[in-house]
């Protein structure tokens, strides 16, 4: 089989890339590893949310997020109309506490309101008297979003080769003429776009290519099922993010990398204690699920979008850290524009672990 552009990976980034390319009239094909493309290690139907706090991240990420926000609003309306999928959009609001509040600039965007955390979320145990609340902070259902992107791509005639897995990229000189699949079939393409995030490194390794210059810290996640909503809003503290789920469960994310601790068990014990200290009601409920998720990327830093060094047609869209959903459309649109003769994006250039 042959295609103009072959995208490896069908998470939010690969699917958004395919959507933006299809919107620009470019022909592409997507090789996803699985038909559902659930994020690795994540229980189905659980929403994770990483609060984006603009004064704590580089301007580049803020600009990508702002561009993406406009695009998501546009895309979501169209996706819902075209595919009939309810994306589960909800305005949960975000309560921010701790150092992020202390570090806030004097001139704050008016989306942030000064609040007393204990008034906003009475079940929290908080010594903090000052918090910031963003009532427009919202969430969509990740699984529904990727499902509806898949449906929209199919109606645009974009093939998704479900259950196919890219085993290695074929490299001849400075060109990548195609990809070998696990079943040993071969896909030829004019250009290949690598969008498999956590799995990019394995694919590069299996293709005898140098790894990307991306750390891959892991974060602990705890899922509790209290049976009713303990919190109304997403809460971001110095060391935890608490994310109420639409079905009453509560997700607790450790914002400190698990790799900082001596052992996984030690990290888990400490996290359980910290979570119960912050939300004492949690100590009454058993942990339903625990997992470690990789977050490839530089903390708060720049993602990568560009050509793999020394190769003429292998593109990389990676390193989204906690922002894959937040910045996917902007990254996808930048690439689509560039492939049609638009400007490059040197500030997102791809670098290798050998510091090429
Ligand atoms: C705990 C946590 C919280 C997060 N919170 C947020 C948030 O609030 N907002 C936000 O924007 N982002 C958030 N993120 C980050 C976001 O989930 C990721 O940045 C995003 O999923 C990256 O999307 P992706 O498509 O690049 O990769 P993935 O979602 O990892 O998808 C990669 C896809 O590639 C496929 N694949 C892998 N290898 C191959 C192969 N060899 N051949 C073919 N296909 C392959 C996989 O099956 C997978 O579907 C969070 C992440 C975590 C872990």
Account of the protein in words:
The protein is an alpha+beta fold and about 350 residues long. It folds into two domains: about 1-75 and about 140-215 and about 300-350, FAD/NAD(P)-binding domain; about 95-135 and about 215-295, D-Amino Acid Oxidase, Chain A, domain 2, CATH 3.30.9.10. It is built from eight helices and 17 strands. It has helices at about 10-25, 60-85, 100, 115-120, 140-155, 200-205, 265-280, 325-340, and strands at about 1-10, 30, 90, 95, 110-115, 130-135, 140, 165-170, 175-180, 185-195, 220-225, 235, 240-245, 250-255, 285-295, 305, 315-320. Strands 5-6-4-12-13-14-11-15 form an eight-stranded mixed sheet. Strands 1, 2, 8, 9, 10, 16 and 17 form a seven-stranded mixed sheet that branches. A two-stranded antiparallel sheet has the order 3-7. Strand 1 (about 1-10), helix 1 (about 10-25) and strand 2 (about 30) form a beta-alpha-beta unit. The radius of gyration is 21 Å and the shape is globular. It starts with a strand and ends in a 17-residue tail after the last helix. The mean pLDDT is about 90. Flavin-adenine dinucleotide binds near residues 11 and 32.
Bound molecule kinds, no repeats: flavin-adenine dinucleotide
CATH homologous superfamily heading of the largest domain: FAD/NAD(P)-binding domain
Give the N-to-C terminal Cα separation: 33 Å
Instruction: Write down how many β-strands occur, each being a DSSP E stretch of 2 or more residues.
Output: 17
Q: Main β-sheet, in a few words?
A: 8 strands, mixed
**What would the average pLDDT be, to the nearest integer?**
90
Number of helices: 8
Q: Give the H and E element order.
A: EHEHEEHEHEEHEEEHEEEEHEEEH
CATH domain class name of the largest domain? Alpha Beta
In one word, what is the shape? globular
Supply Rg. 21 Å
Low-confidence stretches: none
Fraction in beta strands: 15-25%
